[in-house]
Amino acid sequence: MSHTKKIAIGSDHAGLKLKNLFKKELQEKGYDVLDCGTNSEESVDYPDYAKAVAQKVSSQDVEQGILICGTGIGMSITANKFQRVKAALAATPYMAKMARAHNNANVLCVGARVVDQPNALEILRVWLQEPFEGGRHERRVEKILKVEKELKKDSSCC
Questions:
Q1: pLDDT at residue 2 tops 50
Q2: What is the distance between the alpha carbons of residues 8 and 23, in angstroms, rounded to a whole number?
Q3: Dihedrals φ, ψ of 27, to 5°?
Q4: Which one of the listed residues 3, 13, 36, 102 is annotated catalytic?
Q5: Average pLDDT in the 107-134 region?
Q6: Residue 137 bears catalytic tag
Q7: Which of 19, 44, 86, 146 yields a CA-CA distance of 20 to 30 A from 72?
Q8: Which of 13, 36, 69, 109 is catalytic?
Q9: From CA 96, how far away is CA 127, in angstroms rounded?
C-alpha cells in the first residue's frame, strides 16, 4: 500500500538507531519523511528535536510526527506544549492502537531504551494503520482541544 502522507521524525542520541530504522520502514511504505535530526550518537538535548518535529505538526507542514529518545517521556512532554499536537507515548502495540483509535494522536513517542526493535517496529506499524474511531472519542478529543484553546486565550492560567 502506498502513502503520500508527510511525517516528521526526530530523535536524540539514544533514539538515533531506532529513528533510522523507523525512517527506512516509513520510506519503504511510501511515506514522505522529513528527518529533523539528530544524525549523530553525540549527546544532544531531546527538547530541541521534540520542538523541531512538534512545530512541523503544529503548523500542519506535516500530518504526523514521530519522536524517539531513551524513554519517550521527555519527547512527549515537550511535544504536547505545541498547539494541535497530541503526542502519545507508546510502549506496546496496544498503547499505539489506543493512542490513534481513542485519542487521535498525531505524534508517536517511543523509548528506544524501553522497547526492543521488533516491538518498536510493531508499535510503529499499528500506530500508522489504526484509524481514529470517532464517536464518543471525538467528543473527548474536542474537549482536549477546547482546553488548549482556553489556555491559549488565558496564558495567566498556570
A1: no
A2: 10
A3: -65, -40
A4: 102
A5: 95
A6: no
A7: 146
A8: 69
A9: 5
